[in-house]
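Much of what follows relies on a compact textual record of a protein's fold. Think of the row as the fold of the chain written in a discrete alphabet. An example makes this concrete, so a full record is given next.


***
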Amino acid sequence: MTMTEDVTGFVAAFSLRTAPAELLPRVREAFLDSFGVMLAGSREESAQIAARWIRSERAAGPCAVIAQRDFRTSAANAALANGVAAHTLDYDHFGHQSAVMVPCVLAAGEAKGVIGRELIEAYIVGVEVSALLAKGMGKEAQELGLHPAGVCGSLGAAAAAATPACRASRRGAAPGSARTGRGRVPRAGSAPRLSATCRAWERSG
């Protein structure tokens, strides 16, 4: 199994129902902590500048921008504006991976009507994938100015948005009907080496 197959299998198959019991409390703490940091950061000038620029884009959508009251926009723009708010105070979890992931999954959730367990599963997937990739980045990459949060976080966010629940539209196929590029979605306990560890969360709490 290649790393690409491992990651895509994990994205398609991860479920909290088969995850370690100790995972959810750590995830809850990390998500709420990051959400609080995003709320605090939304008052900073950098977050206000980003929100004003997003407003000037006039992109319609259902997703909230925290720094601007009563303002909604597209999922991509909301994730960008809220991502600035989440990162601006530099207090976020996992080498800044949560600053990318929380705004992403909230925007995807609002756009697709995803809530609760499925939203948290998407968050876990994104953090796990981005943390795995960040761990694999050599010092040479960072010496070139490639910041793990930007490089690996964006790929983790793509993984989170690609989870079956986030891919299914409000009127589209049910999450369980999603497919991978190689056929049916693997059963939750069948493959991914990535999901067997959830190592990113060992550093939480």
The first helix runs from residue 3 to 13. Residues 171-193 have pLDDT under 50 and may be disordered. The CA atoms of residues 94 and 203 lie 8 Å apart.
